[in-house]
Amino acid sequence: MAFKDLREYIARLEEEGEIQRIEKEVDWNLEIGAIIRRALDLSAPAPFFQKIVGSPPGYRLLASPNGTGVTPGRPYARVAVALGLPPNMPSSEMIKSYHGVMEKDPIKPVMVSEGPCQEEVYTGDDIDLLKFPTPVFHEGDGGRYIGTWLTCISKDPETGKVNWGMYRVMIHDKKHLLIYWHTPQQHMYGHYLKYKAMRKPMPFALAIGTEPITPWFSGGRIPLGVEEPDVIGGVLGEPIELVKCKTVDLEVPATTEIVIEGEVSIDETAIEGPFAEVLGYISPASRGENQLSRVTAITHRHDPILVCTNPGPPPSDSYTKTSIEVSANVLRYLKSQGLPVKMAYAPLETSIRMILVSSEVPFRNYAKHLAIILWGIWGGKDRAPYLAVFDEDIDVTNFGQAIWAMTTRCNPAKDIHIVKDLPGMALYPFLSREERQKQTGGACTLFDCTWPLDWPKEDIPVMASFEGVYPKEIREMVLKNWSDYGFKV
Ligand SMILES: Cc1cc2nc3c(=O)[nH]c(=O)nc-3n(C[C@H](O)[C@H](O)[C@H](O)COP(=O)(O)O)c2cc1C
After folding, report:
1. Atom 22, ligand 1: which residue's CA is nearest?
2. Taking a C-beta distance cutoff of 8 angstroms, is the pair 308, 171 a contact?
3. Residue 351 neighbours by CB under 8 Å, 6+ apart
4. What's the CATH code of the domain at 331?
5. Contact criterion met (CB below 8 Å) for 240 and 253
6. How confident is the model at residue 177 (pLDDT cuts 50, 70, 90)?
7. pTM
8. Beta pairing class for 442-449 and 416-422
């Protein structure tokens, strides 16, 4: 199933009609950003820009490699293709199968002496970040963001363990950039602090345009000390091939499109941001002083492909894979706690800030019991500040059906339960600037959308749907005769 590189993945997406090659010359200054945004809004194919103002011929830009699929009802088609699963697999099946795919034994990477990522090497005066087709995505952005879907590589100077993380990267000038860590827990920042204590700049490498799974694990939480390349190798079923960087003591995937090597300064800083954050807003809070990084080499394939995502409100491709991952993790965790849960789903429409759970309801106040278990785990309350619990008959992967059930089964006077005054989260747009800075003002809300257990069975309203109120023989007859009635759909 493994794709050798980004180019193989693009070819496969093209077969599925998920890529739009754009031959017309486009401008990196807002035009590209607007095209990507519009394509996301329309669930159009991923824009693949072939000619960009100011970039040498052959330099290309792929946007939204994991954007929502073009066919209605197949939002996760590109994620499925990346995993080697059928693109039309229903979301509920993908959620159930996700762990099988991910929980494979790790496979260590192997070193190779050369790789396509070093077909062209630029050092010294030849370094020029500005030649890449890097967009200014939104009006108000602090600069051109070359890193929006990438792998930032660093090494722990004490243990030698590598970390692959995803952090936004803004170009400062031809030879300098800024990498943004938004919380002190980020592992690359932890490495940086160790270098700072040693009074040494931190070497880094940015790998942009890898095979499709690598960015997922860079942007996902892998425990400290577990090395992402091993986990990715396990998922791919074969070791990743790495080559040594030219100017820093780090290794990068051999087939990467573009590699930027350099050092993060421990003394020099510059202004980074603002930039649109994952919840879909540009906020003045996302601008600040940041460590400056000096580029020591750029290497790339011939005719390199830069890859990007354009953060914004849903539908946003930052979340397609995360939606499946979070849903699968919640489902597995609740089941492991002995709860008779049928399905859990983190809808794309909510920027994954809401979790919908369907379940058998074994006892009174069960939804509250479930909420306490989920909010209690690490990150639980940040992922699910809105939690809705339904009876088993609701397909929670169908967002329209779930919202209908919420607004018809959850009594606003009795079934909404709010927990206030929790620690806040710096990214929440509904918090004041002060609350964001101090990380206060957090809250979680449970919508109990289950029918009360103490109601007599005959009092429970029946869903007046095709399956709900038509006898089996009538349904079968209608389905059999459907085209005879003249319907084309
Ligand atoms: C599209 C995307 C963009 C992200 N941008 C940032 C960012 O700019 N800064 C940040 O600190 N985390 C960002 N993250 C979250 C980190 O990648 C995530 O916390 C990851 O677990 C970090 O891994 P590490 O701690 O192993 O380095 C982003 C994640 C995604 C998926």
Report:
1. 165
2. no
3. 278, 279, 280, 313, 314, 316, 319
4. 3.40.1670.10
5. yes
6. very high
7. 0.94
8. antiparallel
